[in-house]
Amino acid sequence: MKAADLLWTPPPSGGVEALPVGKWWDAVRVSPPVGERGLELLSDDTGAVIQDSYGTLYWLIAIGSAAGWHLRGTRVLCELADEVTYLGVPPVDWTEPSHKGNTHWRVPLGPGRYLTDTRLLREALAAADHIEHGPRVEGRQLCVRCQLPTDEPVLVGAEGGSIGGAVYACARHAPEYRRHDPLVLLDALRRGPGV
Fold it and tell me: Model's pTM, two decimal places?
């Protein structure tokens, strides 16, 4: 995308501004571990990326180009029929986390760096998800940490020896668990949820 294609202007240096998603672009919100890995995998193929004070990354993408995505720790922010979603956009010169609130351009907006190619972003985030969280598990599972059901279960362990099964956590709590031997996890996955 060329600079001439930039149909909007980031806010002036006064501070972060809430801009409506779906007017000029949609955004993909990605949790820190998957986002960092995705950014690494995309390398020079990334467009502009915003990072908030929690480390969450937001890629700007073409409107309507990411419908139907289902990746753990990833949410597509788009215009909905009955509500408006806003994204906090920092001034274009906030490229370091030193400003109030620390929201900044992790990958600065500029000529040649505006929207990220949605296909490349999806491929990078799917690979990052697999690297960070292991194999994708279908169906709802109970998080071992918060005891709430999650549609994005992450396999974090095995319990009960030969008669046990898989132990899951939600994407938020999965980073709290140390990595286990992948062969043990695959065996637990074959056996199913623990009792």
Answer: 0.73
